[in-house]
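I am still getting used to backbone structure tokens and would like to learn alongside you. To get us started, please write out a protein record for me. Once you have written the record down, we can walk along the chain together.
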Amino acid sequence: MCDSSSGFTANSGAPANSGTTEAIAETIAIELGEGTRAVPVAGLGLDSLTGVELLVVGRLVVGRRPSPRLKAFLAQLRPGTLRGVRAAAFDTRVRTVLHGDAARKISRALEKAGAHVVAPPTGFIVEGREGPLAAGEVDRAAAWAGSIASVLRH
């Protein structure tokens, strides 16, 4: 399961470039192969994670705060909730020194919940606040997902 925290509906309150996070999530899901899907975090409950072997969580970095949807999802996680689940985290961000490192924070939250983090948290660059993804970022996401797939095979 590849999970993108960006909003996919017009009334989600998500910024215009939230599609960049969705695009990265879809690329990762495709690279990881059959049985992997990208889903929005909105309304994702712990019951949705039953049987999940890999959880990849991504988020758009705007305003240095997690979206209410991502915050609600992470708040559900307790120590041991993700025991036996492999996990990874990414974010999409504008190239600037002032952005936070959302991927690292998400990765720590997943680890605290008992997940085994299988890839370094990674940020993918967006050109300006409205996007699109910077040149080469989709390929970089595919390579990152490929490294995750390699770890899962061994």
Remarks:
- The helical segments are 18-32, 68-76, 102-112, 137-153.
- Residues 2-148 form a domain with the Rossmann fold fold (CATH 3.40.50.360).
